[in-house]
Amino acid sequence: MSSTTDIAMLIHQLESPDYDTQQSAAIHLIEREQAAMEATLAALEHSNPQVRYLAAWVLGEIGDRRAVEPLLRALQDKDTRVQDWAAKALGELGDRRAVPPLKTLLKTHTDPGTRRHAATALGWLADPYAAEALVAALGDSDAPVRSAAAEALGRLNVRSAVPALIKCLKDSDEWVRIRAAHALGELGYLEALTPLIEALADPVEWVRYNAAWALGELKDNRALDKLTDLLKTDSSPNARRSAAGALGRIGDDRAVEGLVAALGDKDDSVLEAVDRALQRLGYTVD
């Protein structure tokens, strides 16, 4: 069992200017779990902001909900690093008391990094009450904030997010398009079918990959032809692999012909995906 002196020393080491020392101390506090709670909670009030944000990180990793109220207060800290790690910790703790202040942070904070952390934490909390704020964040001037909001909305299962996510398939930033495509697959509403089919022509391979994956999640056979074309002609093995997987998950026997033709693909990962898809469809490769 850890002594009070040992834990006090670790808290002191959080002040170190040496990165390895401070990170090692934080990890040791996490490993001590409940024994470190009281001292780490107190460290949220430390005069050094480095100690405060590392304490927020430790508390999120320990996962004790006694930290919720202190972390909610830390969202008002004057240091953005403390706010960021407090938001992350609250998302990890999974307590929905954090939703209203995180929404406020997402809507009003001037620092895009903090808005991004708030969006990510709201996604982890998966509370539909956060949907309106996250949909609004899809119009944020900062691309990483838009991307984080799109990813978060995929976890909320809120149909009202679908139109805004569809618009994001045309966003100027590729990561916003990637995460919007994935979120639409997670949500699973057929309003996204045609826009996702159109996204199979995106110039970025990971957009095509996620659009194909999402179409597999929708399981609508109207996507068969375009997915078969993608499997046959796309220059990216990643996109072809995703198309094969989607054809298998849709479960329509009409995909067999295109999948069999793809057994001549030169990429091993594509061949594995084709084989799995054919097995799903009850077709055994001799």
Major sheet details: none
**Residue-averaged pLDDT, rounded?**
96
Distance between the termini: 60 Å
Gyration radius, rounded: 23 Å
CATH class designation of the largest domain? Mainly Alpha
Helix fraction by DSSP (H/I, runs of at least 4): 55-70%
Shape: elongated
Strand content: under 5%
- Could you please say which CATH topology of the largest domain applies here? Leucine-rich Repeat Variant
Description of the structure:
This protein has 286 residues and is mostly helical. The protein folds into 3 domains: 93 residues, Leucine-rich Repeat Variant (Alpha Horseshoe); 84 residues, Alpha Horseshoe (Leucine-rich Repeat Variant), CATH 1.25.10.10; 80 residues, Leucine-rich Repeat Variant. Helix 13 runs antiparallel to helix 14. The longest helix has 14 residues.
Descriptive keywords:
0% strand; Leucine-rich Repeat Variant; 3 domains; 18 helices; 286 residues; mainly alpha
Sequence-ordered SSE layout with sheet pairings:
Layout: H1 4-13, H2 19-32, H3 37-43, H4 49-62, H5 68-74, H6 80-93, H7 99-108, H8 112-125, H9 131-137, H10 143-153, H11 162-168, H12 174-187, H13 193-199, H14 205-218, H15 224-233, H16 237-250, H17 256-261, H18 268-280
Helix pairs in contact: 1-2, 2-4, 3-4, 4-6, 5-6, 6-8, 7-8, 7-9, 8-10, 9-10, 10-12, 11-12, 12-14, 13-14, 14-16, 15-16, 16-18
Short description:
This protein is an all-alpha fold and about 290 residues long.
